[in-house]
Amino acid sequence: MKVYLDNAATTAMDDRVIEAMLPFMKNHYGNPSSVHSHGREVRTAIERSRKKVAELLNASPSEIFFTSGGTEADNTALVCGIETHGIKHAITSPIEHHAVLHTLEVCAQKGNIQLHLLDVNEKGEIDLGQLEELLKTYPNALVSLMQANNEIGNLNDLNQIGQLAQAHGAFFHSDTVQTMGHYVHDLKSLPIDALVAGGHKFHGPKGSGFLYVRKDKKIHPFIHGGAQERNMRGGTENVIGIIGIAKALEIAYEDMSGHEAHIKALKKHFIESIKASVPGVEFNGMSGDIDQSLYTVLNVSLPPSEANAGMLLFNLDLAGISGSGGSACSSGATVGSHVLRALNHNPERDSVRFSFSRFNTIEEIDYTVEKLKELYAVEV
Questions:
Q1: 108, 256, 265, 329: which one is catalytic?
Q2: Angle at the Cα of 172 from the Cα atoms of 244 and 79, rounded to 5 degrees
Q3: Which residue from 68, 116, 128, 199 could staple onto 204, CB 3.0 to 4.6 Å apart?
């Protein structure tokens, strides 16, 4: 049996997304910047996709900019937000995605900003009181805090953070890659200046993403070279990616509550089954709390085991199960998860992130738990 439980890294494309993209691979191949009919029909399709994304998020089409994915969108928002608005201080947390952390570290190394990291407790929760104090000390700063952590599933309250940021004139950016397509985002009411999405996290194509920037907080372009994306991103548009991400978001919004109910049931079943099967199992961050964490992610901390030490993901792979030790963007890295290090995770315990999608089944969960039970049978 083959089981894919690494949906926080990437998801399978929905067949309806592929169908929407195919005509733009085969028949509608014009350059959208060209003025002839071949170009105009593609330009129309791009703008139709932009309008669809804006409608779903309750934003203006002029606030949506298509990118190559979440990393580019994060870099654009952070680097250009700092430059455009003359920001000298940035506030973030040590458990952000590296697309945020590394970008801000480079900005600090160049002397463009002073970087402030919030404290997190052993559950990965940030200190909002500390955030407020920092904002009082450094008004007009940049605040970058993700809506949901990609490794441990912790959720942040964007309304609460956004209100604090607004009260102190801060530019508030959030990496919403893990929540886009899984939660409703009403950008007319949400107090946020910039957020990002990556299409492949909600059954769209890889290499597709978008950046939302509130119209009264405009920023300079990050990539220069052409007038595409309203002079905000030079380069010929990834047409099939744009068509795909808009279709994927449309599908996600069609039955978001149904998808959430299905995935939550899988996660709840996984938690109950593994607790009954593997004594000493724990859950990292808030991921084991169904109501207080991202419903697609469960980060499992397993008891010390000589047989599985450093080999757990390999052993699962041999059993046909795909999980992850952390962010897929860090694959191949020799260091452990920076998120788990920030939580003072016990290095003797192996951890694996299982992440679910609407395509997963109870049978797959049962098979995975059974294999974990077999792997840890010697120790228990």
A1: 329
A2: 75
A3: 199
